[in-house]
Amino acid sequence: MNSKGSSTVLGALLFIIIAISVASFTFSLSLDYQKKWKDYLKRQELRQREKIEIVSVENVGLDTYIKVINIGGEAVKIAAVYINHRLIEVLDEFYIPSGSERTIIIKNFNIEQGDYIKITTDRGNFATYYVTG
Amino acid sequence: MLKKTRGVTPIISDLLLAAIVVAAFAIVYSASTGITTQLFNYFSGAFDRIQEDLIVEEAYIKSGNATATLYVRNIGGVTTKITAIYCNGTLIQLISGSQTVKVGELTILVVKLPKAPSQYSPQKITIATLLGNKFTFRLVAIP
């Protein structure tokens, strides 16, 4: 007599537990999705704000000096230097603050007229220079 | 003798019922855990796919030479595993280079093209990854 309504209560409890489980699962998934999407957009934004230019390239003794200016709104990390489509130098910690100039020194390498220089950043941007004279 | 065993059947049936309930619960629990894990992995993989991004920052493709060098950088947010490389829709052979590229890392892939390209001919290079992304780049052979 006393346990007459217990199955209804148990059923309701079970329903609530299932509903909460599904809701929390969906919520955590959507949070994760939003976070990853936000990271992606942030990366794209930073990439678009990056802008570098090669100011000058010259031989100094046995080395090559490549002067680079960062005219973008973000500090950039120069990742690699290519000359004539070949990787010449990988730079580990070469940062240029926004609005500043820095010189990359390629040791024991001299550029020649007609050489094509490309420097790339870790975010996938690049600057090029064609040696004319 | 009969009087002593009178209450045994209800106990056995109770035990049997309890065993059936426990077994049923175990089956339902393991099935739901499996489904939840698979669902989570499915969505998690889909989220990682958004984060994946590759760029061919430089390439050396010379006319008359069937070997090309691709300088590929991971500019995404997750480690990438390259599963296949295609040139103009044909699967090409990777001669050397790491197929696993960590975030920010550069990998130098030396590949064998189906045929030596003529000068200034465009080559459509497609890089396929384990997460299911395809990155396509147009590269031109230098004289």
What would you say this structure looks like, in words?
The complex is a heterodimer of chains A (133) and B (143). With 133 residues, chain A is α+β, with helices and mostly antiparallel strands. Chain A folds into 2 domains: 1-49; 50-131, Immunoglobulin-like (Sandwich). Chain A contains 1 helix and 7 strands; from the N terminus they run αβββββββ. In chain A, the strands form 2 sheets. Chain A has a 4-stranded antiparallel beta sheet, with no helix packed on it. Chain A has a 3-stranded antiparallel beta sheet with strand order 1-2-5, with no helix packed on it. The model of chain B has no long low-confidence stretch (mean pLDDT 89). Chain B folds into 2 domains: 1-51; 54-141, Immunoglobulin-like (Sandwich). Chain B has one helix at 8-51, and strands spanning 54-60, 67-74, 80-87, 90-91, 93-96, 100-101, 106-112, 122-129, 134-140. Chain B starts with 7 loop residues before the first helix and ends with a strand. In chain B, strands 3, 4, 6, 8 and 9 form a 5-stranded antiparallel beta sheet that branches. A 4-stranded antiparallel beta sheet of chain B has the order 1-2-7-5, with no helix packed on it. With 143 residues, chain B is an alpha+beta fold. Chain B has 1 helix and 9 strands, in the order H-E-E-E-E-E-E-E-E-E. The A-B interface holds A 25, 29, 32-33, 36-37, 39-40, 43, 47, 79-80, 82, 85-87, 90, 118, 120, 122-124, 126 and B 36, 39-40, 43-44, 47-48, 50-51, 53, 55, 57-60, 69, 71, 73, 75-77, 104, 106, 108, 142. Chain A: It comes from Thermoproteota archaeon. Chain A: The chain crosses the membrane at residues 12-33. Chain A: This is Flagellar biosynthesis protein FlaG.
